[in-house]
Amino acid sequence: MTAQRIDGNALSQQLRAQVAADTAALKAQGLIPGLAVVLVGDNPASQVYVRNKVKACQDAGLHSVLEKYEATMSEADLLARVEALNNDPQIHGILVQLPLPAHIDAQKVIEAISPAKDVDGFHIASAGALMTGMPGFWPCTPYGCMKMLESIGYKLRGKHAVVIGRSNIVGKPMALMLLQENATVTICHSATPDLKAHTLQADVIVAAVGKRNVLTADMVKPGAVVLDVGMNRNEEGKLCGDVDFEGVSQVASYITPVPGGVGPMTITMLLVNTLESAKRALSAQH
Ligand code: NAP
Fold first, then answer.
1. Residue 77 belongs to what H/E stretch?
2. For residue 193, which of 101, 173, 215, 269 sits 20 to 30 Å off, Cα-Cα?
3. Which residues are catalytic?
4. How far, in Å, from the CA of 48 to the mean position of ligand 1?
5. How much is the pLDDT for 285?
6. 264 ligand 1 Cβ < 6 A
7. Cα separation of 71 and 99, whole Å?
8. Ligand 1: distance of its center to the CA of 4 in Å?
9. Where are the strands (E) in the chain, listed by range?
10. Given 3.40.50.10860, 2.60.40.640, 3.40.720.10, 3.40.350.10, which CATH number is that of 30-114?
11. Cβ 208 under 6 angstroms from ligand 1
12. Predicted pLDDT at 11
């Protein structure tokens, strides 16, 4: 079997076109969805990420503000900026780019963001909403994975999903989203003794580890769907995922490539969440 690729760039284009159309419709009602991206310090990777996020907003017609601060900014000053953005009616989504400098308590900053504007979905209220099935914002990367499954018409009910990785931003929310769609979910992590024993039973595997070749062909049941969240560099410095793409493509039915898979979906879902936040703000006015 040669797996079909789930093309994250193509799916992103479709979803971003829909965001742009919905944004134009909101503008006609006098509301422009707005995202504020806050960057503290000069981490080169973070600079690329925030630039891409702001550009994606602009391309879709959203209002976006990039606030850049020196690495020496105090925690109190950052908390004050977050509070100002919480109260800014032009801003519907607030994203504080992580990691923050060591002297700032990142969790404290995330908890300072109003849950109504928590478009990254990292606030404890957003995590609680996902866990209890209440409305809230879903973290963008696992949300993008769900959209990828939806795009191939995959029905999760009764299927066995194995998530490798249990971080708060990918693995755990991913597992909860799969559970919400009635999959039977197994979460594996660094203390899982026999990863292959679990993955071989899976209809769907999501790899979110950050290590190359965590998932190889011998660990995958024929016909399984494989989503690769990992972002690593190979010996040549090229971007690659957690999955042995060539090998696993011979066994799986669907697979996401790296690059061009889950990566672009993450920014897309940030736009989707910001638009949703603006819609909620509008309906709250009426
Ligand atoms: P993380 O916080 O480092 O979590 C990694 C998880 O993998 C941990 O739960 C860890 O287990 C588990 N793990 C480590 N080694 C393992 C092994 N040998 N077998 C099974 N599990 C193992 O990373 P993250 O933030 O979730 O990100 C994961 C990857 O996704 C990274 O490569 C990151 O760059 C990428 N990522 C991509 C996007 C995107 O937009 N495409 C977005 C976010 C993250 P323990 O909990 O036991 O330590």
1. helix 75-86
2. 173
3. 53, 97, 120
4. 20
5. 82
6. no
7. 11
8. 24
9. 4-5, 34-40, 63-69, 93-96, 160-164, 184-188, 204-207, 225-228, 232-233, 239-240, 254-255
10. 3.40.50.10860
11. yes
12. 98
- What is the C-alpha to C-alpha distance for residues 272 and 270, in angstroms, rounded to an integer? 5
Sheet holding 93-96, edge to edge: 63-69, 34-40, 93-96
User: What would the two tokens of residue 66 be?
Assistant: 């990039």
pLDDT digits (tens, 9 = 90+) for 5-62: 999 999 999 999 999 999 999 999 999 999 999 999 999 999 999 999 999 999 999 9
Query: With bands split at pLDDT 50, 70 and 90, how would you rate the model's confidence at 263?
Result: very high
CATH superfamily of 140-263: NAD(P)-binding Rossmann-like Domain (3.40.50.720)
Q: Residue 208 Cα, ligand 1 centroid: separation in angstroms?
A: 5
* Triad 134, 130, 8: Cα angle to 5°: 120
